[in-house]
Amino acid sequence: MSAALGGRPAITAGRPLAPWAAGLCLTVVALAGLCLGTPFVAPQDLLGMSPESIAHLVVWELRVPRVLIGLAGGAAIGTAGLLLQESLRNPLAVPEMLGVSTGAALAVSVCVIWTLPVPPSLYPLAGLLGAALGGLVTIAATRSGRSAGGVLLIGAAVSTGIQALLLAVMATADRLQYDMLFRYLVGSLSGLMWEQASETLPWFAVALPLVVLCVPALGLLRLGDDAAASLGSRVNLARLGVLGVSTLLIGAVTGPCGPIAWVGFLAPVLARRLRPDAGARGWLPWSAALGALVTLTADLAARLAFDPVETPLGAWTAPAGVLAGAALLRRRAAS
Amino acid sequence: MTSTTSPARAVAAVTLLLAVAAAHLLVSGQPLGAITGLLDGAADGQAEKIVWELGVPRLLTALLTGAALGVAGYVLQATLRNSLAAPEFSGVNPGAVLGILGGLTLGLFPADSAAGALLAALAGGALGGGLTWLLSAGRDPAGLVVHGLLGSALLAGLTTMLLAYQPSRFGNALRWLIGSVEGRVWEHLAFASWWIAGGIAVAWACSGMLAVLSPSDDHAASLGLHPGLGRAIALTLAIALTAGAASLAGAIAFVGLAAPHVARRLGGRVRTVAVVGAIALAGADSLAQLAGQLLDGTHRLGIPTGVITALAGAAVLIRLGRSQ
């Protein structure tokens, strides 16, 4: 399963052990996701179950697609977070706090709750549209305020406004499904099956080459606007492209999983911490791997902590992300 | 600063309050006769009963909650010397909501106990405020808002977890998350109204202290006020008021942020901010009722009031953020 995550860092000079450790962690967490729960299935029995047994059904129809979506979605949201942070050169650029994730959640929930005639396979497109709109509102509102804190504040205002709209949409539902409410508020992997997986995974396949195309642009944007412009490159075009790819990733994730809260912030921060001098190119695969790892781990907690009740995955990732954000602010203030 | 006691201002405030109250009752969809019929002091007839049992408590809830949040925001902004300090950005408001839901989940108090909800909201509000204070310890007050945002996000995550754990227990999870004054009746108000009125009265009595405290610690000390003690009193007051508001209406966003700005622009202090907050929330609730009716009344919930305040507040916050 974890081998599907094609994100092995190309440049890992110095510590060749780290990629193996990350791969091992991912495998362990993915296996735990397949095995733990009711019924418990021992890892060695995974392949040898009789096709009629309930365990076989649970593992292959419920757990496998869930782990797959968790892997791909977590990796995508981690990547998107890094792209956002790098292109806006703001380490506090959290998708939730920029109106991007919330915009996507609003767009998708409108389609779902008002049963608009949009086929489910196009929900990622609706999410992309919503994400782009939410992000545009924030960017338009922050024209003059450029400090990291100021952007965060304005983004929070936009997000709160969009979230209020989301709740208003939820309030118009004839029968409120709590499941759906929590999914679009913070993100949740509950109830995902092959149907959703087959609608979502192709979008990630589309996004992967686009992410690779972004890599040269990232190095360029890191130089700063003036330096990059003096080298004759079209900075704004590059930035727009990178932002577009990240909104595509976020839009695709939000459809089935909701905004996986704060993973888009947490994964890049951890990647930077692990590889302080790798540069954007080195952080990209790490953000993806760590995003998948955090998502899968949080999903385990969401599934098992209050068994048999499932809690939303985002309710677990949000505290972790927030604490990381506080630590980051503290370090920046100290330095 | 002009005197806040000039009769013209008092008349204007009372007129505005009455106008908003009348508008609020009028948009509730009941016939005009049922509202004027109440003026004779008895609720006879079904329409009059509906107005008396539902419409009037809803109006009072909106007025009280708005006033409480406005004053709490004013006290916070004056004490922390930060024009962006507000109940929702200091973790107090989300903490109070978390406290109520946590208390309900653990079965610490019955769902219909107003005093229990208030106590839980107090404990949660203090916890949320304390958390923000911990996160931002040693930082300058300007950084408080960013930390408050982070603390609020943390508390919101915990609230979601609680809600997801047993959604059916809260009757209506949405009303706590977004804030709504709908469905409050006289029993809910019986306790909280005294609490909020008392808190506002104390804040009014303390307005001299707030004025001394707000320029700087040295300024307060030179005038004979121990800054730490004064700040502790003021913060307790803010938490108490926020908890009272949250126990009535859940997490109403941005009234506590915007009302003090309006009041300061008008040159007023505690009383002005209370009136501004009350008018703002009652007006927002009128809009929410109106919007709910325009979207045809078949929906279960209508439009929660918190949606209107959040949208309006987001616009205010963006303006404030850009001027930072």
> How is the main sheet of chain A built?
none
Mean pLDDT of chain A: 81
**Biggest sheet architecture of chain B:** none
Rough outline of chain B: globular
Task: Give an overview in words.
The complex is a heterodimer of chains A (335) and B (324). Chain A has 335 residues and is mainly alpha-helical. Chain A has a single domain (16-334), classed as Orthogonal Bundle (ABC transporter involved in vitamin B12 uptake, BtuC), CATH 1.10.3470.10. Chain A has twelve helices and no strands. In chain A, helix 7 packs antiparallel against helix 9. Chain B is mainly α. Chain B has a single domain (57-323), classed as ABC transporter involved in vitamin B12 uptake, BtuC (Orthogonal Bundle). In chain B, helix 1 packs parallel to helix 13, helix 3 (46-80) packs across helix 12 (255-265) and helix 5 crosses helix 11 (227-249). Chain B starts with 6 loop residues before the first helix and ends with a helix. The model of chain B has no long low-confidence stretch (mean pLDDT 82). At the A-B interface, helix 5, helix 6 and helix 12 of A face helix 6, helix 7 and helix 14 of B.
